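Protein modeling request. Please complete all fields; requests missing the sequence field cannot be processed.
Requester role: graduate student
Desired output: 3D structure, token encoding
Chains: 1
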Amino acid sequence: MAPRSQRVAAAQSQPCHRMRRAVWIFQAILVAILLSVPTSAVPGTTRDAAPAEVTVVIAGQGRVSSDPSGIDCSPFSPSPTAPCSAEFADNTTVTLTAQPLAGWRVDSWTGCDVLSPDGIMCTINLGVSPRTVISTWVPAPPFVLTVTPSFFGRVIATPPGVECDYSGEEGFANYDNCGILYDDSTEVRLDARAAPGSRFVGWDDSRCPSSPSCSLPVTQNHSVRAFFDPVPFAVYMAVEFDPSENPFVVSEPRGIRCPFACESAFRAGTAIRLKVVGMIDEIRWGLGCVPDQDDVSGRTCSAPANTYFVTLGVGGASPPDPPFLLTVPFRVRKAGSGTITGRGINCGADCYANYEWGDSVRLTATPSPGWRFGRWRDGCAKPKRPRCRVVPGEISSIQARFRRL
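Delivered output (405 residues):
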């Protein structure tokens, strides 16, 4: 048995050993706890961000893209409801956007943190957990696109639908096929075509350029106006005379008083009568005007409706050539059912063509089944025959009339 002093010393040292053991156990537990906590949760530590997966499910027919890029789901995925997935770093804000698709619109989202007021954009704030967002699409109602020409002209749309014509014949505006339904987000191209006696000026839509062609997405009921102006009528006059004789040319309706005012705009379809005023002889009418047979002095002539210019020489001068290479538009009209064909013309489908001044064009009118040809109106020497020779420039339009059997 150990001496009493040794037993006392051993007994006094046991609490110290127990204390050390408790400290070691506590340290081991603390290390284990620290090792189990992600380093990103410990202040002052960093680690590489683990990717988080975002999955988009499209219900219906639609398209969704993401920012940052990575997701671009559309009906061209393996199936219309096929999920589209991409991985993004955690703590990333991802914006999903519904892209326009003809005939469909986004109806609702599931799984968004923030939704834009118009329902187009869905924002999610990523953590470390995967996220699934459902985008539900429904068929969109069609919208009406209405086109209005302001003057003599036509607007044709692609895809087909609008073929709006302002002819103004006999004092009335004839609007046909000026409004049509298109699926939501359909891209429509409009082409403006000026009628004889007018020219295209522009559109009233800021998205359209100044050119006659304009492309618009149809996303709501919308109206577009095409502006046309009348082509100025001009008198080109050559003179050889004593200045004291002071000849000039006046028009009826008023507008021309040449050489002071040799151009004027007249309403399409207006026949113009010209007269040389002044103490002068030797008047020679040139292009565009027919001398009045009842005026033995030769001072008056009549320009047919939609004539673009007249030339004349006075005081022994020859009529001048027009100061430009002239190409004139020519229009074929029809009443009833049938077709009119000729060089550059196939009406129904294409009733307009451009010709050089003085060209000779032979037109043939063919009635549809159950119809017969009636007559030509304006410009044919033999109006009851189905074939007619016309000279664009001398006339700017002609009409074929068909009657039911």
